[in-house]
């Protein structure tokens, strides 16, 4: 039962349970600002990746054991193994400060060390 998330889809209900969805809670132990309870939010990794997908954010992926090479592009889809389909992908050589367009790629989740929104 593999699940692939795409831009038009939503995470299935199994990923929206209280343990697997964004967890919101308030309590008497939470910090209070102007006598209001502060809401604490926990975001799971799958929800953050899905948000990048929905917003069509340009992301930069740092690769495991290849600190000089990074991949940048827009996520088109991903699965439970964090394999990513990336469109308009570019290879970024950090030390040389060069970029090379590589088009649409499939990046295996094993290679991902860090993923961040580039703001572009």
Summarize the structure.
With 120 residues, the chain is mostly beta strands.
Task: Please write out the topology.
Layout: E1 4-6, E2 23-25, E3 32-33, E4 36-37, E5 40-42, H1 45-54, E6 58-63, E7 66-79, E8 84-93, E9 98-107, E10 112-117
Antiparallel strand pairs: 1-7, 2-5, 3-4, 6-7, 6-10, 7-8, 8-9
Subcellular location: Cytoplasm, Cytosol; Nucleus
InterPro entries: LSM_dom_sf, Sm, Sm_dom_euk/arc, snRNP-E
Family: Belongs to the snRNP Sm proteins family.
Describe the 3D structure.
It is a single chain. By secondary structure, the chain is mainly beta. The protein has one domain: SH3 type barrels (Roll), CATH 2.30.30.100. 8% of the residues lie in helices and 49% in strands. The protein contains one helix and ten strands, in the order βββββαβββββ. The chain has one helix spanning 45-54; strands at 4-6, 23-25, 32-33, 36-37, 40-42, 58-63, 66-79, 84-93, 98-107, 112-117. The strands form three sheets. Strands 1, 6, 7, 8, 9 and 10 form a six-stranded antiparallel sheet that branches. Strands 2-5 form a two-stranded antiparallel ribbon. A two-stranded antiparallel ribbon has the order 3-4. Strand 7 and strand 8 (84-93) form a beta hairpin. The longest helix has 10 residues, at 45-54. The two termini are 34 Å apart. Residues 12-32 have low confidence and may be disordered.
């Amino acid at each position: 039962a593999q699940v692939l998330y795409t831009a038009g889809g939503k995470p299935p209900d199994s990923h929206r349970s209280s343990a697997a969805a964004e967890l919101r809670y308030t309590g008497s132990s939470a910090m209070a600002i102007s006598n209001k309870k502060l809401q604490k939010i926990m975001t799971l990794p799958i929800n953050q990746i899905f948000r990048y997908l929905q917003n069509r954010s340009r992301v930069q992926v740092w690769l495991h054991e290849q600190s000089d090479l990074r991949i940048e592009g827009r996520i088109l889809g991903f699965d439970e193994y964090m394999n990513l389909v990336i469109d308009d992908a570019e290879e970024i050589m950090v030390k040389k400060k060069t970029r090379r367009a590589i088009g649409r790629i499939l990046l295996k989740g094993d290679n991902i060390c860090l993923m961040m929104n580039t703001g572009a």
